[in-house]
Amino acid sequence: MKGIGGFYYVSDGKGNVFECKARGRFRREGLKPMTGDLVEFEALRGGGSIEEILPRRNALVRPMAANIDKLLLVLSAGKPAPDLILADKLLIQAEKNKIEPVILINKTDMDRIQAEAIRRQYACYAVLLTSARTNEGIGPLKEILRGKSACFAGQSAVGKSSLLNRLDPALTLETGGLSKKTARGRHTTRQAELFYIADCDAYIIDTPGFSMFETGLDKSETAVYYPEFRIAAQACRFASCRHDKEPDCAVKAAVERGDIPRERYERYIRIIHSLEEK
Q1: Which residues are annotated as a binding site?
Q2: Which end of the chain is more exposed for a tag (fewer CB within 10 A), N or C?
């Protein structure tokens, strides 16, 4: 369910949670239990022991979470200003791990125009407009989550915990505001934690906000994780086209026609150039 200071809290699926330590051999094998893992454990007097980490369907690097059906990327239509480079990197990670991404544009009550502008940039993904304040989108969100395991990810103060409280008011998770000096979010969620939402039979991982993330890819493979590039890329002159400086690039032509959002393409170029510099 969560890990804090070397202790891991494991549910037996019957309403009991056990505080466990991980076997020392996991460290030697380069393994670490992650929120969302399925494990075999032994309940011992004075503290349990995780004996095995069962094979993972997938695992995210940041936020650290395992066995996810959907990645719910939460963006703010108000403050803090959305970091769309970070968003694009998280979407790349989801695509790479074959996790279905869903974009939640939250705080729509603060700036509807901004919310619609963000939605247009991500038209190739499933996008839902939400407001934890007004309850907008909460019903459709429950249907998206029904019977699934999902992970909320995004910057601090975009409303991840507030949305979870709307999904299940009994959670009463701590929520935070913005720093008056920087207009950036204050951290309230301090570790990834798994919750069961009975109303939609879903397991949801709430995660701490963050602002830095590296994809772990190289420049040549990044483009394949952009869904809106795939059809256009088939018409590029070169099969290995990176859609940057190559001639007769069909993706660049699609950007010029307005078929691919220019903002998304320009951020893609920034990402691959930063990978090249590294």
Answers
A1: 106-109, 154-162, 236, 241, 243, 249
A2: C
Extract the annotated binding site for Zn(2+).
236, 241, 243, 249
Annotated binding site for GTP: 106-109, 154-162
CB under 8 Å to 65, separation ≥6 — which residues?
A: 34, 35, 36, 59, 151, 192, 205, 207
pLDDT at 140: 97
Q: What is the pLDDT of residue 174?
A: 81
Cis-peptide, bond into residue 169, ω within 30° of zero: no
Low-confidence winner among 38-42, 213-217, 263-267 (lowest mean pLDDT): 213-217
> Residue 199 has what DSSP assignment?
G
Domains and CATH numbers, the chain: 2-53 (2.40.50), 59-206 (3.40.50.300), 222-277 (1.10.40.50)
β partners of residue 258: none
